[in-house]
Amino acid sequence: MKKRRALVREEAARRGVDGFLVTDIRNIRYLSGFTGGSAYMLVTAGRDWFLTDSRYGEQARDEVRAASLRIYKKPLEAIAALVSELRLKVVGFESNNLTVDAHGRLRKVLSGVRLKPVSGFINGIRARKDRFEIEQLRASARLLSLCYETTERMLRPGVVESEVAFEAEAAARDAGAEGLAFDTIMASGWRGALPHGKASDKRVRKGELVVADMGVVFNGYNSDCTRTYCVGRAGAREREVYQVVLDAQRRAIETIRPGVPCSEVDRAARDYIAEAGYGGYFGHGTGHGVGLDIHEQPVVGPASKDALAEGMVITVEPGIYIPGWGGVRIEDMALVTKDGFEILTGTAKDLLCL
Length: 354
Ligand code: ZN
Ligand code: ZN
Prior knowledge:
It is a single chain. By secondary structure, the chain is α+β, with helices and mostly antiparallel strands. It has ten helices and 20 strands. The protein folds into two domains: about 1-125, Creatine Amidinohydrolase, Chain A, domain 1; about 130-345, Creatinase/methionine aminopeptidase superfamily (Creatine Amidinohydrolase, Alpha-Beta Complex). Helix content is about 35%, strand content about 25%. The protein has a six-stranded mixed β-sheet, sandwiched between helices. The chain has a four-stranded mixed β-sheet with strand order 8-9-12-20, covered by helices on one side. Strands 7-10-11 form a three-stranded antiparallel β-sheet. α7 (about 130-155) crosses α8 (about 160-175) and α9 (about 235-255) packs antiparallel against α10 (about 260-275). It starts with a helix and ends with a strand. One zinc ion binds near residues 288, 317 and 331.
């Protein structure tokens, strides 16, 4: 945490602010270890301050290290009092998080102080994971593999999508997952063409492809993986589309190493799918960073300005979605290593017919 806050302090100084107000609760967790739901942090050159209300007092005393704790009744007034005590002149705030309302009220109570909007720089720091975070992401991905074992055991003609999803989720919860990263996607047959087809009461039929996209949370860290299965024998078209997506994903993964623009990772998958004649059926970005948030920096898409760096964890998830027919998506989490990548979600990926 100390090292993380030192990075924030450096960056704050570079941006000419003498105090930085952190309002994004995930960023607060990242900088303090606090797992509660409501708090503020003020990072200054000399010292860091952690502010929360009395409901979280005990928890903050237990979890938050190396920051001075203040309990407030009214948060903005407490922040204002602290800022004037410390005689801060320019206070940076997270303009990508603070609401317009809160900003207006803050400006009122902080008269004489310049409020400087700063967008997403802690999120930028968070893109590169430290050792502790990589361990949590590994553990999260390991728990997630139990969901897939359960899915593979349960998928058969006649089973209901939501029953499979429920059992898969229960397997991860049983083994220690604290929750789900997002609503489980279990989309069979034509529903596979919906990239966000949440598990429904549709029954799986023989010969259908099933897209299973799941994620769990472990110690605050999200995991994210997609497999596409065939129930019964796969037809020629099912096999062909599956192979195109699998090869596209392999090509994208093989580009991963520090310094490579994220747009290039995306392009490797996108160009391959286009060359195979399915260019019109891949509408979303190839991937995203994953950590305390399920979608975070970097962006892995055609217009991304981000570049890969050691310690980043991204997903690679190309797909082909054909309305009325179905879809295929294959997704893994990859850690960017010093000279390449390591897959965190690895299980076999050849088309599995259940
Ligand atoms: Zn996913
Ligand atoms: Zn994803």
